[in-house]
């Protein structure tokens, strides 16, 4: 009979895989862990690149595919998807009886995973708790903290916040962010290999990676989801006015993503973006290798706050999606306005590279996280810890 610890890691969306991949690789290499991945939400959808196929191609066992995503572009669809995630995940966990469940960050589907594991009495490990973000994400992140039994946080400040929420210091470990591991390793991706991959994906103009270009990644803000079409239109107009090659990634699945996507389609139909390439998804190290070569990241993705700080990439962060996050000097914050975005991008391109920061880790978080997951014995009977 195997004495390996049976660890299930829940991946519900494109960014979740990049956030945890380095830890998955470290767990896979251990003799004392039987690792499985459980996928749900947009990780199964073709229009978001079917991350589940990439997970399997990387050699990980996907123990179940849970079709939980409820179609629609309204806030209610996020609630319904969360409910479906609780339903299907609870059934899968009851069938599979893992020893540990790991959930990541702050997407609404991760709350469904956390509720299911908590009610089944399965120890829950939360990666990247204690951070401040905009929109509904912050409520979700802190709710998961209270459901989780072990906290693997990215920064010292995040750890202190988790402690202030009544979590025992012995259950809080500062590990750094495992996505920074991929940023560190991205220098192994050669320009010819990356160019070949980029040319084989997406639509639009050919972008020569040996010349200057920007990367655009704009997601809807759930607090103002009804304005997502206008917000994306502002971003596209500002980037187009630069007359500079750009690589644009389609948005995450959130309330407002239909409006964001529609703005991109309308922009293309009006013959905008003559030097722009449009991509659904790119493997994690390849994406960070692309970002490493870019002049600037434009949009509101957390990759501008985390990985870009380590890489020293200039970032123009738009709007409130990342409000409150710890950030470094490489980030310039602007309102979603054509003129403000354009000026900030030109200034950032003029500035050039920033010094590398280890605010979110030194690129070796995966091994630390794997060691803690493999050896920890979380107590599901936790109580509020009064400092």
Would you give an account of this structure?
With 387 residues, the chain is α/β, with parallel strands linked by helices. It has 2 domains: 5-177 and 361-375, Rossmann fold (3-Layer(aba) Sandwich); 185-351, 3-Layer(aba) Sandwich (Rossmann fold). The chain has helices at residues 14-28, 51-57, 75-96, 108-119, 137-147, 156-164, 178-185, 191-200, 228-240, 257-269, 284-293, 307-311, 338-351, 365-375, and strands at residues 5-11, 33-40, 62-66, 100-104, 124-127, 150-153, 172-174, 203-204, 214-217, 246-249, 276-279, 296-299, 315-318, 331-334. The strands form 2 sheets. Strands 3-2-1-4-5-6-7 form a 7-stranded parallel sheet, with helices on both faces. Helix 1 crosses helix 7 (178-185), helix 4 (108-119) runs parallel beside helix 5 and helix 9 (228-240) crosses helix 10. 53% of the residues are buried.
What does this entry show, briefly?
The protein has 387 residues and is α/β, with parallel strands linked by helices. It folds into two domains: 5-177 and 361-375, Glycogen Phosphorylase B (Rossmann fold); 185-351, Glycogen Phosphorylase B (Rossmann fold). It has 14 helices and 14 strands.
Write the layout of secondary structure elements.
Layout: E1 5-11, H1 14-28, E2 33-40, H2 51-57, E3 62-66, H3 75-96, E4 100-104, H4 108-119, E5 124-127, H5 137-147, E6 150-153, H6 156-164, E7 172-174, H7 178-185, H8 191-200, E8 203-204, E9 214-217, H9 228-240, E10 246-249, H10 257-269, E11 276-279, H11 284-293, E12 296-299, H12 307-311, E13 315-318, E14 331-334, H13 338-351, H14 365-375
Parallel strand pairs: 1-2, 1-4, 2-3, 4-5, 5-6, 6-7, 9-10, 9-12, 10-11, 12-13, 13-14
Antiparallel strand pairs: 8-11
Helix pairs in contact: 1-7, 1-14, 3-4, 4-5, 7-11, 9-10, 9-13
């Amino acid at each position: 009979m195997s004495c390996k610890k049976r660890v299930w890691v829940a991946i519900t969306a494109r960014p979740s895989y990049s956030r945890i991949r380095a830890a998955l690789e470290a767990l896979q290499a251990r003799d004392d862990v039987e690792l499985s991945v459980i996928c749900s939400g947009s990780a199964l959808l073709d229009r978001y690149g079917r991350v589940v196929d990439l997970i399997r191609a990387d050699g990980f066992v996907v123990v179940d595919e849970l079709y939980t995503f409820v179609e629609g572009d309204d806030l209610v669809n996020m609630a319904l998807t969360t409910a479906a995630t609780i339903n299907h995940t609870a059934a899968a966990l009851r069938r599979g009886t893992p020893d540990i469940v790991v959930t990541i960050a702050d997407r609404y589907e991760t709350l469904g995973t956390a509720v299911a594991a908590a009610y089944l009495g399965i120890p829950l490990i939360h990666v990247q708790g204690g951070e401040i973000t905009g929109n509904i994400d912050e409520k979700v992140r802190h709710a998961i903290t209270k459901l989780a039994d072990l906290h693997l946080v990215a920064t010292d400040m995040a750890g202190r916040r988790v402690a202030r929420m009544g979590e025992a210091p012995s259950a809080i470990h500062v590990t750094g962010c495992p996505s920074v591991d991929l940023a560190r390793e991205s220098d192994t991706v050669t320009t010819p290999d990356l160019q070949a991959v980029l040319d084989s994906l997406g639509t639009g103009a050919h972008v020569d990676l040996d010349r200057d270009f920007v990367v655009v990644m704009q997601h809807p803000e759930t607090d103002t989801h009804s304005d997502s079409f206008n917000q994306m239109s502002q971003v596209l107009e500002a980037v187009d006015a630069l007359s500079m090659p750009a690589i644009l990634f389609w948005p995450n699945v959130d309330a407002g993503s239909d409006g964001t996507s529609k703005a991109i389609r309308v922009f293309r139909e009006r013959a905008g973006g003559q030097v722009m390439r449009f991509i659904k998804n790119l493997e994690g190290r390849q994406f960070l290798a692309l970002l490493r070569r870019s002049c600037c990241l434009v949009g509101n993705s957390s990759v501008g706050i985390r990985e870009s700080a380590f890489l020293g990439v200039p970032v123009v962060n738009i709007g409130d999606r990342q409000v409150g996050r710890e950030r470094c000097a490489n980030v310039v914050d602007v309102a979603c306005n054509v003129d403000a975005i354009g000026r900030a991008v030109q200034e950032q391109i003029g500035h050039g590279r920033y010094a590398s920061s280890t605010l979110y880790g030194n690129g070796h978080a995966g091994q630390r996280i794997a060691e803690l997951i493999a050896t920890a014995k979380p107590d599901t009977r936790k109580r509020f810890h009064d400092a």
